[in-house]
């Protein structure tokens, strides 16, 4: 009998450990999980007309207007429709790795009585939400529930990481917005120099249609022209945009100017081309940023000085550029 005591104790300890691990979902069949992991909220993304984030008591609501998305309470804040669409895709992709409890009576047990975060969408007049509670015993996962239901899920934090965003995360990051194929002229000035990139008319019998751009009077290829334009077009911001009137209060002076001539090509060659339009931008130095703003807009976009200088250097490194003194000597 004494010989059997150690074995009996080991079996008892093993049984207790197995019960604890099973109750806390340590033994999840990953293959079964991958097959059966249901999304918490099913919704048609194209029908979503509002999203709301409430993270640690800080709410943010975005509402879809007739043409674009707006921040509630700050309607003219510049938003990126792509960023909003990406968030909705992330929201509808959140899946429950496993069901922790189907009919949970005590949400406080999971930290869901006062959720750390609540994410919601409005689809066809119906509000759908995901609430996030405390951490589960499994590293990298949290408790969650959908639509205030009683079922508690275990959800991967990686599924939720893309939902935790600020207004700036939804903001438009590109100061210059225009279609590259519509550019007919790109002229900018900086420190007393002007750089004028033009698309020249292509002759019908031209042997090389790619050689139809000029930079300060020197011929450049279409590929080179696109590269130069994109040096500015691809500039992005890494901090919040500010209202344009803040620049005037600061006393910032214009240091850079840009005029872009745009003209969409006619879809039908037999139809006349649309009238060309001009977009004008100004750049204002403030701290270590140059703030870019479009004429008539209410927001200014801060581009760090080093990135802006790289764009300028791209143009200055091109062999086709000559300053005024060199041109006059000729």
UniProtKB/TrEMBL annotation:
Organism listed in the record: Paenibacillus popilliae ATCC 14706
Residues covered by the DUF4340 domain: 69-233
Family annotation (Pfam families): DUF4340
Protein name from the UniProt record: Permease component
């Amino acid at each position: 009998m004494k010989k059997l005591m150690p074995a009996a104790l080991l079996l008892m300890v093993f049984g207790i450990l197995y019960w604890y691990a099973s109750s806390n979902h340590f033994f999840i069949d990953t293959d079964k999980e991958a097959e059966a992991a249901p999304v918490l909220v099913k919704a048609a993304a194209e029908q979503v007309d509002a999203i709301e984030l409430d993270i640690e008591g800080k709410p943010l609501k975005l509402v879809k207007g007739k043409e674009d998305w707006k921040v509630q309470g700050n309607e003219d804040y510049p938003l990126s429709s792509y960023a909003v669409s990406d968030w909705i895709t992330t929201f509808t992709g959140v899946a429950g790795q496993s069901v922790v409890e189907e009919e949970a009576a005590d949400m406080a047990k999971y930290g869901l009585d006062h959720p750390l975060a609540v994410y919601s969408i409005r689809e066809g007049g119906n509000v759908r939400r995901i609430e996030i509670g405390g951490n589960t015993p499994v590293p990298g996962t949290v408790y969650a529930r959908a639509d205030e239901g009683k079922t508690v899920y275990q959800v991967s934090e990686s599924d939720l990481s893309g939902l935790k965003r600020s207004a700036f995360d939804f903001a438009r990051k590109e100061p210059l917005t225009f279609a590259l194929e519509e550019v007919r002229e790109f002229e900018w000035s900086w420190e007393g120099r002007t750089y004028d990139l033009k698309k020249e008319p292509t002759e019908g019998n031209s042997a090389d249609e790619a050689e139809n751009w000029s930079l300060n009077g020197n011929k450049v290829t279409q590929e080179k022209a696109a590269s130069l334009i994109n040096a500015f077009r691809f500039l992005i911001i890494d901090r919040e945009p500010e209202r344009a009137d803040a620049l005037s209060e600061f006393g910032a002076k214009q240091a850079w100017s840009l005029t872009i001539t745009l003209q969409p090509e006619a879809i039908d060659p037999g139809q006349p081309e649309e009238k060309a339009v001009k977009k004008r931008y100004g750049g204002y130095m403030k701290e270590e940023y140059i703030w870019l703003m479009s004429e008539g807009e209410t927001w200014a976009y801060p581009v760090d000085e080093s990135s802006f200088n790289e764009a300028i250097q791209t143009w200055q490194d091109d062999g086709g550029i000559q300053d005024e003194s060199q041109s006059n000597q000729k």
